[in-house]
Amino acid sequence: MQWLKILTPLLLGASLASTVAPVSAQTRGDDVLLEMQKAFRQKDKQKLTALLPGARGHVLEPWAAYWELKARIEEATQDEVDAFLQRYAGSYQEDRLRNDWLLLLGQRRDWERFMDMHFKFRMRDDKEVQCYALNVDQMLGKATEEGAELILRNWYGQRELDDGCAYAASELYANKKIKANDVWRKARLAAEANRLRAVAKAVQIVAPEAAGGLREAIDSPTKYLTGRATARGKMKQEFIVLALIRMAMSDPAQAANMLDNKWGVQLSAEERNWLWGLIGKQAANSLSPDALGYFNNVTRDADLNDDMLGWRVRAAMRAGQWKVVSRSIDAMSAMGRTDPTWVYWRGRAYLSNRPGDEDKANAKRLFESIAGTSSFYEQLAREELGQKLTTPPAPSPLTPEEIAGARANPGLNRGLYAILLGLRSEGVREWNYATNLHNPGGLNDRELLAAADLACKQEIWDRCINTSERTKSFIDATQRFPMPFRSSVVDHSKGIGLDPAYVYGLIRQESRFIMDARSHVGASGLMQVMPATAKWTARKIGMTDFTPDMIYDRETNITIGTAYLKLALDDFDGSMALAAAAYNAGPGRPRNWRNGPVIDAAIWAENVPFTETRTYVKNVLANTTNYAAILTGQPQSIKSRLGTVGPRNAAEPEPNKDLP
After folding, report:
1. Is this structure's pTM higher than 0.85?
2. Mean pLDDT for the chain?
């Protein structure tokens, strides 16, 4: 680790260097830190305690001490926790342990200690802790309507079972601050997400006597629905709803048939509307032409949530029904309507069907509210206003004092050191805390610019990009859209007829230029190539000496990644949107997704069924447009890169069916 010896003096800012051991001791402790991380992941409490003395004085000592105490936090005393908080005051680890202790105090219902500890909590980003705190407000008579709404929003948003928000919601229900329908809604959302323990927890709050009947409804929905003739009473109606939800997730047509021919007349209007909204959503997610027909059975849009309404918008755009687009977006919550996605499409709806002056003015107002240079819908809105994308002017250069301030920040130093040592997860969390959460509101724009500069100079490109993206008053394009390995990327791209901007746009989304990146599914390296894909592509391009370990070599990764992207682009008639989808989700899915009407590729991209791939395609196209502006120095159009998407021309040769 000779490179860390060289970097340590640079990374240790003056305020931190005075409190840690000399560089030689730092490097001796590196192996201890790596062993401790491994022991922490293995939940080896004894080994952590034995190793801790060897980490004393190391720049990452706060992490070592955190792992050791966190591993045995269930048995820890308040005095031990207080001693830790005092020793590492002001650090990420101090507030991280405070977060962990607050969760434990909440579970123990130790509200006096919770209140004292929460007062000093800085991050305030844990929804479960937030719910516990709001519950304390209720106990003290300080509850507000906004607080109850926040508890419900947090509870609805949590896919996994938690104690904090479920407990706070149960207390609200017991105190008649929320209605039974609010609790049943959580059960419905959990059933849709296949989180059955969360379903049971919600039902326990509102109908504790009904646990036995619930199991059959959610475990065997077909048997439950066919074996009953009536649903008398609120509880039984909701069980029918839960069973239909479970059925709809795998077979929306069957659920629609059951709802239409048997159960609909026995349910309330709100229950029917929810189910038709869910069935319509599932059909829209499958790109089924039946989706709008299901949605048409909804009699009151207010009974649908924003997710259902969003899928109705998508289905309506595919069908060219812009009045339905308008109505659906208007029915969303205030928060939903401000999402740039729906702001843009509401503007487009105003411009459909021979708009008048008022429609044009309304559309312009909406586009102006989101127009920018960074994201997909910012760029599309900008083009609707007649402005192509250009590289923003650079901010004023950093002063020596601003640079020195970033270099002296202990949290940034520890974050970089951890990343360079190989503790990427810990380093990223430390860095994000230092930039976003240590001070209320996070670092200001100039401080963020200096922090991003520090990361860029160390070639920690993901922290460089992510930190720079948080500036609001200016944009530094060189930080947000860096071009490492420029000669390799440009030469390989041009050599096979690829736009280098497209390759950079994809790499930025895939790996953020992290050379050793590895995804949860096994994709590796700069261009995140799967092992089987790498082997196939190497054979396709005549790379006879390829071995699997070569994918971690930068040049090999770029060679294979660009070659595969070119093959995918050719396979999809030059459509950047389709090829990006193929790169992310495999070619088979976008081959199916392109079937149907010929539509604007922006509409097609918004209808991609997988959330990850939908986001990926939009980000790659937006990145590409920015890189093109930087590389060419000329104004760029995202619309020209989108074009239209439709079925493959049957007269054209069959696609390369073995493309993995």
Report:
1. yes
2. 93
